[in-house]
Design goal:
The complex is a heterodimer of chains A (137) and B (446).
Chain A: E1 2-8, H1 17-28, H2 33-53, E2 56-64, E3 67-75, H3 82-85, H4 95-99, H5 107-114, E4 117-123, E5 127-135
Antiparallel strand pairs in A: 1-2, 2-3, 3-5, 4-5
Helix pairs in contact in A: 1-2, 2-5
Chain B: E1 7-9, H1 19-23, E2 29-32, E3 35-38, H2 48-52, E4 58-60, E5 73-78, H3 92-101, E6 106-108, H4 110-128, E7 136-137, H5 142-151, H6 165-181, E8 188-194, H7 197-204, E9 216-219, H8 220-229, E10 241-242, H9 246-249, H10 256-259, E11 266-270, H11 272-283, E12 292-296, H12 312-326, H13 331-340, H14 364-380, H15 394-402, H16 412-431
Parallel strand pairs in B: 5-6, 5-8, 6-10, 7-12, 8-9, 11-12
Antiparallel strand pairs in B: 1-4, 2-3
Helix pairs in contact in B: 4-6, 5-11, 14-15
The chains are: A alpha+beta (137), B alpha/beta (446).
Chain lengths: 137, 446
C-alpha cells in the first residue's frame, strides 16, 4: 500500500507529524518492533532534513508484506557532495538551525545505519531524493 | 489473556457524555448505546477517565478497611505520597500511628523500599550500563509501564527490570515478621495504601512477575478519612512504626526517583499525555543522551494520583516539607535490610512483554487491506473529532467501521447528509403532479 505525507520546509514547530503518522500506521500493521524502530528513526530524520534544509517535500511510503520503502523527496538546495554529507558530524546547518537543536551532522548517517539500502540522488539548486528500503525481519 | 482492571464503570451513573473518550491516553473508551464501555485490552488503569468524568461514573475498585481482618497479622505499607495528604495540624507521627489505632499491627512506609531500590538501580545502571537501550525508563509507575506495553511496545526493552518499591517493601516486612514472630506467611496480610488504581491493578495482575507480595490495596482517600475521623483518639509512641528517609519519601512526587540516582543526564516527566509525547520521541530515536527517564502518569507524580484527597500541588509542597524533616531515616535499620535482602530480590523474574492492542491483525496482508479501508473512510469524514459517534476521533471511528463495530451512518454528519439527500428527493417527488392535475397550476416548474 502507498501513503504520502507532505512536509513543509522551515516549519520546526509542526515537524515530526509525518513520521509520527507513519509510525502509527506501521504499529497498526503489526510490523515487527525492530523494523518499526528503524523505519521510525529514518523517517523522522528524513522529515527533519526537509524541514531544516528544503523549501518543501514529501515522504512517500510503500508497504509490501516483506519490505517497506521510504522515499523523501524535496525541492531545495540539493547536496553538492553526497559522500561528505554522509560523514558523521559533517553538517552545513546554519547557526539558526543549530539553535533549534538540529544540525549535528548525524541525520544522513543515522538514516543509512537504520536502512537496509539507501540511495541519494541530488541536483544542486533543485532538490534531493533519498530512497530507503527496509526488509521486514 | 484476560486483563484485570481496577478502573470500572458504574453503568447507572454514566450519562453517555463523551468527556472520557477524549482524555483516554490509549483510546480505550467508546460510548455505545448511551453508556461508556472500556476496551479491556487497551485500558492501562491510569485513572484519567475517573479524573474527567463529571458524573462520577468511573470508579477505582480497592479493598475496604475491613478486609484486613482476613489476616492474623496486619501490616500497612503507605505509599510515599500518603503523608502529603495531611495539613500542618496533623502530626505525621500521629498520622502513621493511626494505622495501629485502626487495627493494623505494623506500619512500614513504602519510601523505605524506595530507599533500598535506589541503590539497586544505581548499581544496575553502572554494571549493565553500556548495553542498555537509551533512555532506561523507570518501572515504578505501573500506568506508564502499561502505556508502554500497549502503545509503545517497541520500548518495553527500555524499562528497567526492577521491582517497584511497593513489592520490595512488602517482601522485606513479610520476611521480618515471619522471622521475628514465627508466623506462617498465610497469616500475614500486607496492605498497600495506594494513590492510584494502576497500583491496585499491579497487585492483582503484576507485570514482569507472577505474584505480588502485597495482599490488599486500600485507597489513600479512604485511609485519610478513617484517620482524620479518629484523630483525637490516636496514641503515639509505638515501635511498630517505621518511617522512610528524605530520599525515600521523595518518590511520592515527580523528581524523587532521579534525586537519589548518582548518574548524569536524568530526566523526570509527569502527566500521562506529556509522558506519551516523550515516548513518541524516543521511538523515533530521540533522547539518546538521557541515561534514565523517570516517567509518572499523574501530574506532580503520585501525590497527584486519582485516589488521593489533596490538591496535587499542595500535596507536593507538603511532601517536600515532610521529607526535609525526616532526614536520613533510620540508617541502622536500612543497613540491616540491605544485608537481609538477597541481591536478586530487586529484579523482575520475567521479561516485560508487549501488549499490542493497536495492531489490526496478525497477518500483515489482512491488516493492510483494513488500513486501506480505514484511510478511505477517513477521507470522507469531517475530521472534526466531535465525539457524537462515541469514538474519540474520526480516525478511531473509521477504524471501528472497518472492523465492523460501527456503521458508516453512525456518523451524525453522514446521517445528516443522507437525510438532506432524502429530503431533496422527497421534495422533487412531491413536485411531480399526476397528469390529470398538471393544467391546474404548479406543473410549470415540474
Amino acid at each position: 500500500m502507498h501513503l504520502e505525507f507532505p512536509v513543509q520546509g522551515g516549519n520546526f514547530s509542526g515537524a515530526g507529524g509525518a513520521s509520527s503518522s507513519i509510525k502509527k500506521v506501521l504499529k497498526q500493521l503489526g510490523i515487527p518492533y525492530d523494523t518499526l524502530k528503524r523505519v521510525a528513526i529514518a523517517s523522522y530524520e528524513s522529515e527533519m532534513n526537509i524541514v531544516a534544509y528544503a523549501t518543501r517535500g514529501r515522504l512517500l511510503v510503500e508497504i509490501e508484506p516483506g519490505e517497506i520503502a521510504i522515499t523523501a523527496a524535496d525541492v531545495g538546495p540539493g547536496i553538492p557532495d553526497i559522500e561528505k554529507a554522509l560523514q558523521e558530524g559533517y553538517s552545513t546547518a546554519t547557526p539558526l538551525i543549530r539553535e533549534m537543536g538540529f544540525g549535528a551532522g548525524l541525520g544522513l548517517s543515522n538514516m543509512k545505519k537504520a536502512a537496509d539500502e539507501m540511495v541519494i540522488e541530488s541536483v544542486v539548486g533543485e532538490g534531493t531524493t533519498v530512497k530507503m528500503k527496509f526488509r521486514l525481519s | 489473556m484476560s486483563y484485570f482492571h481496577s478502573v470500572k464503570l458504574l453503568d447507572s451513573e454514566c450519562k453517555g457524555c463523551t468527556h472520557c473518550i477524549r482524555t483516554c491516553p490509549t483510546e480505550a473508551i467508546r460510548v455505545r448505546s448511551g453508556k461508556a464501555t472500556i476496551i479491556s485490552e487497551r485500558c492501562i488503569d491510569c485513572g484519567e477517565c475517573i479524573r474527567t468524568c463529571p458524573n462520577s461514573a468511573k470508579i477505582a475498585v480497592t479493598d475496604p478497611l475491613e478486609e484486613i481482618h482476613r489476616f492474623r497479622y496486619k501490616i500497612a505499607i503507605p505509599a510515599p505520597s500518603f503523608v502529603s495528604q495531611f495539613s500542618r495540624r496533623y502530626s505525621i507521627e500521629k498520622v502513621l500511628a493511626g494505622f495501629l489505632f485502626l487495627g493494623f499491627d505494623r506500619v512500614l512506609e513504602v519510601g523505605f523500599g524506595a530507599d533500598l531500590i535506589m541503590s539497586a538501580i544505581g548499581e544496575y545502571l553502572k554494571s549493565a550500563g553500556a548495553q542498555l537501550p537509551r533512555p532506561v525508563i523507570s518501572s515504578a509507575c505501573p500506568a506508564v509501564v502499561r502505556l508502554i506495553q500497549v502503545r509503545y511496545p517497541g520500548l518495553v526493552g527500555n524499562i528497567i527490570p526492577i521491582q517497584p518499591p511497593m513489592e520490595i517493601t512488602a517482601r522485606y516486612v513479610k520476611d521480618v515478621v515471619m522471622r521475628e514472630l514465627g508466623l506462617p506467611v498465610s497469616d500475614i496480610g500486607v496492605f498497600f495504601i495506594t494513590p492510584c488504581p494502576a497500583k491496585a491493578t499491579a497487585v492483582k495482575q503484576p507485570v514482569g512477575t507472577s505474584d505480588s507480595y502485597v495482599n490488599g490495596v486500600i485507597a489513600i482517600c479512604d485511609m485519610v478519612n478513617h484517620i482524620k475521623m479518629n484523630f483525637d483518639r490516636i496514641q503515639t509512641g509505638s515501635t511498630a512504626i517505621q518511617s522512610a528517609s528524605r530520599l525515600g519519601l521523595g518518590w511520592g512526587r515527580r523528581g524523587g526517583e532521579i534525586d537519589g540516582l548518582d548518574i548524569p543526564n536524568r530526566l523526570a516527566v509527569d502527566g500521562i499525555h506529556e509522558v506519551s509525547k516523550i515516548l513518541e520521541k524516543i521511538e523515533t530515536g530521540g533522547f539518546q543522551n538521557i541515561n534514565f527517564l523517570e516517567a509518572q502518569a499523574c501530574v506532580c507524580g503520585c501525590v497527584g494520583g486519582v485516589l488521593t484527597a489533596e490538591n496535587p500541588f499542595i500535596a507536593k509542597l507538603k511532601l517536600d516539607i515532610v521529607s526535609r524533616e525526616s532526614g536520613e531515616g533510620n540508617r541502622e535499620e536500612f543497613g540491616k535490610a540491605r544485608m537481609a535482602m538477597p541481591g536478586d530480590a530487586y529484579f523482575l523474574p520475567n521479561r516485560i512483554q508487549p501488549r499490542p492492542a493497536i495492531s489490526l491483525g496478525t497477518d500483515v496482508r489482512e491488516a493492510m487491506k483494513m488500513l486501506q479501508e480505514i484511510e478511505r473512510i477517513c477521507k470522507e469524514l469531517p475530521g472534526i473529532d466531535c465525539g457524537s459517534c462515541g469514538c474519540p476521533t474520526c480516525r478511531a471511528f473509521a477504524e471501528d467501521v472497518a472492523a465492523g463495530l460501527m456503521m458508516r451512518m453512525d456518523c451524525l454528519f453522514d446521517l445528516r447528509e443522507r437525510v438532506r439527500c432524502l429530503a431533496g428527493e422527497i421534495f422533487s417527488l412531491a413536485k411531480k403532479l399526476p397528469h390529470a392535475m398538471q393544467d391546474k397550476g404548479g406543473a410549470d416548474d415540474a
